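Final report, Chapter 2: Outcomes

The project's central promise was a pipeline that accepts a single protein chain and returns its three-dimensional structure in a standardized token representation, suitable for archiving and comparison. That pipeline is now operational. To close this chapter, we reproduce one record exactly as it appears in the project archive, with the input sequence first and the structure output second.
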Amino acid sequence: MTLPKFAPPRSFHAELKRRAAQYFQTEAKAQTGNNALLGKAILLVSSLVALYTHLVFFTPALGWVVLECVVLGTVVALVGFNVMHDGAHGSFSRFPRLNRAAAFTLDVLGGSSYMWDAKHNTVHHMYTNIDGVDDDLDIRPWMRLTPDQPRHRAHRFQHLYFGFFYCLLFISWILFTDYQKYFTRRIGSVALKPMSLNDHLIFWGFKVFNLGLFIGLPVYMVGWQSWLVGFLVSGAVAGFVLSIVFQLAHTVEQAAFPVPHETTRKMEDEWAIHQLRTTANFATDN
């Protein structure tokens, strides 16, 4: 598939960046994370470590296990939003090494920061809401997320069963989709850039580490049945929270789903305008 081509940039993007920079300068705010974000990151990572330690080494009764696993899954998602995501975008800190460390929290939790960079930072943010390119839109045939995707009878009920597939996101991510991308060398229809030897070593090193940390050691300490309950509960909660929050940014009625020209593959807008049209305008104070 030929990738879509955006219209040449005009004055809009330059003016947008100028005004954004002016805002930060006028308000005397850093364009990267501040001490509040660092404090939140420390709190979240500490909570994650504490919950894991208590569940694996000081395992409580079953009722408490389920409750703590719900909290653990929520904290995993929050680490993803507040630490990993910002680190991968280079906005967690003004120090590149700290950004890299923040991005590596995904590798510790079972994902791959390399695959995330390719899937999210490159493909998703470059071709947001373009069906057939933006991999975030592809849950076919189970769900229909854009007006141009094929409609099946079951889709009339997807508002009832969507939660099941959202719960599968995190578990399938760490156990299947990263490996699928690695071996097919593709993010959906987009070719994955070549990986260096270091990229391969980091990918497999953290995958083995994660399997030992979140499967091997817990199974050894609490048995496979208790581990399976905890793994499924925490993974389902993490997947549901991650899906709901990420979908709110783009897969909503207010966002556009532009289609490239059938023959030229050209887009109507330049990239910056495309980004605004395909992204919901919301924040904590809106």
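Archive annotation: The chain has a mean pLDDT of 93.
This record, like all others produced under the grant, will remain available to the consortium after the project formally closes.
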